[in-house]
Specification:
globular, six-stranded mixed β-sheet, 14 strands, Jelly Rolls, mainly beta, 183 residues
Length: 183
């Protein structure tokens, strides 16, 4: 069972102790760092214009993505190292289908515009934490697309290959191919 955000007032006015939502699976976990609506429901003040921040903890070899929500994202590494791959999944873009890879460590990040597919693989021996700052609250019904990160048409050169320690969710593995997305 996933526990919701819990906020407990301390004896100092304006100071709360928080227990954040953590969603675990075979890849590691996603810690929901900030969701404005849950903060407000718990009686906490808003933190401003960024309505959600997630902090997935990913074990070495874990691949997450390729996810292209209809929202801007700022992504950054809080710990460990990742091999990030951004794929243009915007049908009207002159760079449709192009991908760029980045090796990122703590304090390095990317601003990922609406419609660009974000993905990464944890490549450090210690688990990596890859922060997502969303422009709007994520929901399963949010417009956007997801693409299979193992699609041969994308030809992403993941540093840790299948059969050599790659961990990927059944959900990401079942995402449509690039050709299915672009028609």
């Amino acid at each position: 069972m996933i526990e919701p955000l819990r906020a407990t007032k301390t004896d100092i006015d304006g100071l709360w102790q928080l227990s954040l939502k953590v969603i675990e699976d075979e890849r590691g976990s996603v810690m929901e760092f900030y969701r404005q609506s849950e903060f407000e429901a718990a009686g906490l003040p808003s933190l401003g214009d960024r309505p959600q921040v997630n902090a997935p903890l990913s074990l070495k070899g874990t691949v997450r993505g390729v996810h292209a929500e209809s929202a801007h994202k700022f992504v950054a590494v809080a710990s460990g190292r990742v091999h990030a791959v951004i794929v243009d999944l915007r049908k009207d873009s002159p760079t449709l289908g192009q991908a760029r890879s980045f090796e990122l460590g703590r304090g390095e990040g990317l601003f990922v515009s609406n419609g660009l597919g974000n993905s990464f693989q944890s490549i450090s021996d210690e688990p990596s934490v890859y922060l997502y700052y969303f422009e709007q609250e994520w929901s399963p019904t949010m417009p956007g697309v997801s693409c299979n990160p193992l699609d041969p048409d994308l030809a992403i050169d993941w540093p840790i290959k299948e059969g050599e320690g790659m961990i990927i969710s059944a959900k990401d593995r079942a995402n449509p191919s690039f050709k299915e997305i672009v028609g």
